[in-house]
Amino acid sequence: MKQLILLLTSLTIFSACRKEETQQASTPAKSDLSIALIMPVHHSEIPVGCDTTLVIEISDALSLHEYTVEILGTDNHQYFYKEGHSHFSTLKLEEEWINTAPAGMELTLKVQASNHAGEVLKESFNFYSIP
Amino acid sequence: MKRIFFVMTAFIMALSSQACDVCGCASSSALFPGTLNRESQISLGYQFMHLSSRHLPSILQGQQGVERKSQEYFQTYSLGTRISFHPKWQAVVQLPYQYVNKQDGDVRTENQGLADVQLGLARYFSGDSLGIFSSWTMLAEYDIELPSGRFDHAAISEQTSRYMLPGSGSVDHLFRLHAQASTERWIYRLGMAYRLNGMGPDGLDWGDRVQVSGEVGRLFETKKMHQWYASLGYQFEHAFGDYQNQFILPFSGYDLGLLKASIQWRKNQLALAALAFLPVHGTMAEGRVKIHQFVQFQFSYYPKFL
């Protein structure tokens, strides 16, 4: 009988410890999902034919799910596209892109990311194709 | 005497069926059988579980809004032993190996390796001084799962989720209590278990699991000392939410009820058991993960030299 009481007491103690840990946890807000363009900077001028490295950081308190990176011209042509899936909470993308858009065209870099809560964040940045 | 022998064996087999920490099964999800017969044993176990996952709506080009489906097949092989080193005490060791196969459209992903080693200690109690349980035999067991299994965080990829890794990366604790009463032909069992999961090196903590179960079984004897046992039971599991870096992960935590059926055989020092589980209520991942098949098989040998 004593052993049984001891066992039940141990179970209770462990359960109590666990409860405390769980109560400290919380569900993150939507704003935890973020997209940052590191390189080139927003409004950069990029020469035609220039080999450019796109560096983008996506992060969230939760694990990420999917992402898309797209460069669209004002002519609605897609000059770059990349997509993927991640289970990490941060992702640093480094992608090579050669600017084939005609000089004078404004380009829009569109980045979308989702997390495992089903939240989606979209960010847009602009570049200018120059001679 | 033979009957008692089999009653106890049947109980051993039944204890192997507490095995549903599906989402948290980074290591072997099969809990090693307990025992009330105080026999030492060596066992080979096999568990198969087929899950399907309905993914979140896609944002990928051409797939916007599509909820992709994948199939996951978990197979766990385990070698285990229970050694009676005292009339009331047993030492438990289990060495599992996990193989996971995921089919996502045309993409097939495999992940396998040694899962976490489990070490335990079990103690028998008679229910003599416990009033209504005076005719019951009871078992209390504590097991620790060491982070010895393959935990390669870098292996996590687009197709490989964290739960597909064989090792959990954490120290986990299992507490179990079982009680059994029997008549000449019938066996009644009650069980409860608490799984206290630790935190992995990446800050992920699978939620704890609480499990209760009940079962009724009947014994049959045939000629030439073949003994059979069939049982039907119910198992309920509550999983607390998983959390990482102090955030509760969405779609984690669940309540799941399973119908459990078993057929078992024993002759002398050899025994075989087959168990099947059927989900009867509750959902996992808010309905995004479903169990399609869940079975266990176990071969046990009861050596006289241990």
Key traits:
heterodimer, A: 131 residues, alpha+beta, 5-stranded mixed β-sheet, 3-stranded antiparallel β-sheet, 1 helix, 18% helix, 51% strand, B: 306 residues, mainly beta, 12-stranded antiparallel beta barrel, globular, disordered N terminus
Structural topology:
The complex is a heterodimer of chains A (131) and B (306).
Chain A lengths: L1 H23 L9 E6 L4 E4 L3 E9 L4 E10 L4 E8 L4 E9 L7 E10 L4 E11 L1
Parallel strand pairs in A: 2-8
Antiparallel strand pairs in A: 1-3, 3-6, 4-5, 4-7, 7-8
Chain B lengths: L1 H14 L25 E14 L14 E18 L2 E16 L2 E8 L3 E9 L10 E9 L26 E11 L3 E11 L7 E2 L3 E13 L5 E13 L3 E2 L2 E2 L5 E14 L2 E14 L5 E13 L5
Q: What does the model show?
A:
The complex is a heterodimer of chains A (131) and B (306). Chain A is elongated, with a radius of gyration of 23 Å. Residues 19-23 of chain A have low confidence and may be disordered. Chain A is built from one helix and eight strands. In chain A, the strands form two sheets. Chain A has a five-stranded mixed β-sheet, with no helix packed on it. Chain A has one helix spanning 2-24; strands spanning 34-39, 44-47, 51-59, 64-73, 78-85, 90-98, 106-115, 120-130. Chain A is an alpha+beta fold and 131 residues long. Chain B is mainly β and 306 residues long. In chain B, 5% of the residues lie in helices and 55% in strands. Chain B has one helix and 16 strands. Chain B has a twelve-stranded antiparallel β-barrel. Chain B is globular, with a radius of gyration of 20 Å. Residues 1-35 of chain B have low confidence and may be disordered. The chains are: A alpha+beta (131), B mainly beta (306). At the A-B interface, helix 1, strand 4, strand 5 and strand 7 of A face strand 7, strand 12 and strand 13 of B.
